């Protein structure tokens, strides 16, 4: 149904906390099977592979991790072929995953608060962080890559999902060098990605890759101050980064009292900096790097960006503040009512005047946007995003919202009260004429049956409900990002 924004101040809670918590149970088993419990019909034209990554383990042999973002990457793959669907999941066998599996205990510190057992003394002056490859998975240039923003990618076997080693792109990437988990694929056939090397000043590296998976350009930019930049956006001529107003105090980390991520603090009185870097081999190549300012806040993800004459429009998910991952808190006890929601904002940058205007697009709490792949970096009309069931307030993601940016019309499909939504992916129908012709696919955790479903919606009409719901034999812990490849 099409929901109008509501003005009610209090709405009934759409979920219960115990249901939500159960989606954070580890999945230790690796499966390989044809999905045979299906409601509805998988469209025969839907051919290809949905790839998902996210923390598969939330504990190491019973020792709980402090935060899901510290969990070892587990790939889930759903292959659609001739109206059938096959499931396989496998852990990325990083050095840390294998070592901890063997030891049966936590051996590494995590970025988001996980510490080795034994208190601060056991952690002091240990600067080694576990590389967990848990954030995204892409298939590009015939390579299947598991990504995590603080280190190099892991290369996986596209059929068996076995871990083959690290990927260095013929030596263009050096050992330990980062390659972010948020590449953008320019519809012109280039994959653009970045890396952050933080410090008192931060180096931003931009990579462009061709369809053979080779890095064809690599450029570095130094910006003043510490950066925590998780995502970026591209247009035809620019890469755009939002430097969140944060500072980093390394002392508690060095002393073993807190993890690196816990030493990052949002500076509410400092502006966000928008860094606009011209792309290599673009019309803007000779232009200088520009840095503009806008209001404080915290951004993990952007939806998209595009140029309109001398303006750049950027749509992003903004938080008033970064939810703290403090040492003595438990993420399972998250109080959604007191945390700031992520909301969609539009930033309008006037390049000649160096002015930024911003505007709230929707109040609903949401995260994990997706759009038609042909509109990345180009003007676009539709976005799809995981969202809260209720139009106001903060709550877990339970629904998918479609936003028509031209008419402000919204459509909602909700899995509440017992379903919890993962990142949706828009998949265009082949030879589609309209921007919303295709499907939106997501994993939904069903607390009633403690299992996950793959749901398929018709992107042009959510009111039909799901066109197919595929019941897995087990749950998949709440994940992060993924992608779709027609292969
Ligand atoms: O900033 C410096 C550079 C850097 C790259 C220092 C640093 C150590 C913090 C760092 C490392 C950053 C890392 C490893 C970030 C990893 C992030 C991650 C695994 C996930 C982020 C997810 C973001 C969101 C918004 C997820 C939302 C999820 C839901 C709403 C529901 O489950
Ligand atoms: Fe992300």
Bound molecules: (3R)-3-hydroxy-8'-apocarotenol, fe (iii) ion
Number of strands: 35
Counting DSSP H or I runs of 4 or more residues, the number of helices is 4
* N-to-C span: 33 Å
Helix content: under 10%
Sheet/helix structural class = mainly beta
Radius of gyration: 21 Å
Low-confidence stretches: none
Proportion of β residues? Answer: 35-45%
Give a verbal description of the structure.
5% of the residues lie in helices and 40% in strands. It contains four helices and 35 strands. It is globular, with a radius of gyration of 21 Å. The chain binds (3R)-3-hydroxy-8'-apocarotenol (3ON) and fe (iii) ion. (3R)-3-hydroxy-8'-apocarotenol binds next to loops. The site of fe (iii) ion has 8 residues, from β22.
Question: Which characteristics define this entry?
Answer:
487 residues, mainly beta, six-stranded antiparallel beta sheet, five-stranded antiparallel beta sheet, 4 helices, 35 strands, 5% helix, 40% strand, globular, binds (3R)-3-hydroxy-8'-apocarotenol, binds fe (iii) ion
């Amino acid at each position: 149904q099409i929901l109008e924004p509501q003005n009610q101040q209090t709405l009934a809670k759409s979920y219960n906390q115990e249901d939500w918590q159960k989606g954070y149970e580890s999945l230790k088993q690796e499966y390989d099977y044809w999905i045979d419990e299906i409601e509805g019909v998988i469209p025969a034209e839907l051919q290809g592979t949905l790839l998902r990554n996210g923390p598969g383990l939330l504990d190491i042999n019973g020792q709980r991790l402090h935060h899901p973002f510290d969990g070892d990457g587990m790939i889930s793959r759903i292959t659609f072929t001739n109206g059938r669907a096959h499931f396989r999941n496998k852990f990325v066998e990083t050095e840390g995953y294998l070592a901890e599996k063997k030891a049966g205990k936590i051996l590494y510190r995590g970025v988001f608060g996980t510490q080795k057992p034994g208190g601060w003394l056991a952690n002091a002056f240990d600067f080694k962080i576990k590389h967990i490859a848990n954030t995204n998975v892409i298939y590009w240039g015939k390579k299947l890559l598991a990504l995590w923003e603080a280190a190099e990618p892991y290369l996986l076997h596209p059929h068996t999902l076995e871990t083959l080693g690290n990927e260095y792109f013929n030596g263009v990437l050096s050992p330990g060098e980062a390659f972010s988990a948020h590449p953008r694929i320019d519809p012109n056939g280039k994959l653009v990605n970045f890396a952050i090397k933080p410090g008192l000043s931060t180096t931003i590296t931009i990579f462009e890759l061709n369809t053979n998976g080779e890095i064809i350009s690599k450029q570095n930019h130094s910006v003043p101050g510490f950066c925590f930049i998780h995502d970026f956006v591209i247009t035809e001529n620019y890469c755009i980064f939002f430097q969140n107003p944060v500072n980093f105090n390394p002392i508690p980390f060095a002393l073993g009292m807190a993890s690196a991520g816990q030493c990052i603090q949002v500076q509410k009185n400092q502006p966000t900096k928008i860094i606009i870097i011209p792309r290599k081999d673009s019309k803007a190549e000779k232009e200088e790097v520009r840095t503009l300012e806008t209001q404080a806040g915290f951004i993990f993800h952007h939806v998209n960006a595009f140029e309109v004459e001398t303006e750049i429009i950027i749509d992003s998910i903004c938080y008033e503040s970064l939810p703290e991952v403090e040492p003595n808190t438990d993420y399972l006890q998250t109080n959604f009512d007191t945390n700031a929601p992520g909301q969609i904002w539009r930033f309008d940058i006037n390049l000649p005047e160096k002015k930024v205007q911003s505007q709230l697009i929707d109040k609903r709490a949401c995260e994990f946007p997706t759009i038609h792949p042909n509109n990345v970096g180009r003007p676009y009309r539709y976005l799809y995003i995981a969202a809260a069931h209720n139009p106001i307030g903060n709550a877990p993601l339970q629904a998918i919202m479609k936003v028509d940016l031209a008419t402000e019309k919204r459509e909602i499909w909700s899995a509440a009260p017992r379903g919890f939504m993962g990142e949706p992916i828009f998949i265009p129908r082949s030879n589609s004429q309209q921007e919303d012709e295709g499907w939106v696919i997501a994993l939904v955790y069903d607390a009633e049956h403690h299992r996950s479903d793959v749901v398929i919606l018709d992107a042009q009409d959510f009111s039909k409900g799901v066109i197919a719901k595929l019941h897995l034999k087990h749950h998949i812990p709440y994940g992060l990002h993924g992608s779709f490849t027609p292969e």
